[in-house]
Design brief:
With about 70 residues, this protein is mainly alpha-helical. The protein is built from two helices and no strands. The protein starts with a helix and ends in an 8-residue tail after the last helix.
C-alpha cells in the first residue's frame, strides 16, 4: 500500500471514531431528557464506550502502521 492510501485510511478511521463518540453523547443527552431514571447509567455507558472506541481506533491505527508500504511497487 502507498503511504498516501494508509494516511487516508487512518484519517477516515479517526473521523468515524469521532462521529461515533459524538453520537454516543448525543444519544445520552436525548435519553436524559426523555427518561431521567436511566440518565446516570446512560452517561456511565457512554463514558465506557468512549474509552472503548478510542482504544479500538488506536488499535486499528497501530495495525495500519505495522503494514509497511511495498518499496518494489511502482
Amino acid at each position: 500500500m502507498k503511504k498516501e492510501k494508509l494516511m487516508k485510511i487512518r484519517q477516515i478511521l479517526a473521523l468515524v471514531g469521532v462521529g461515533i463518540i459524538f453520537l454516543l453523547y448525543l444519544a445520552t443527552l436525548v435519553c436524559a431528557f426523555i427518561d431521567r431514571s436511566q440518565s446516570k447509567s446512560m452517561l456511565l455507558a457512554s463514558i465506557f464506550a468512549t474509552f472503548f472506541v478510542a482504544f479500538v481506533v488506536y488499535a486499528f491505527n497501530m495495525a495500519i502502521k505495522m503494514v509497511k508500504p511495498d518499496d518494489n511497487e511502482k
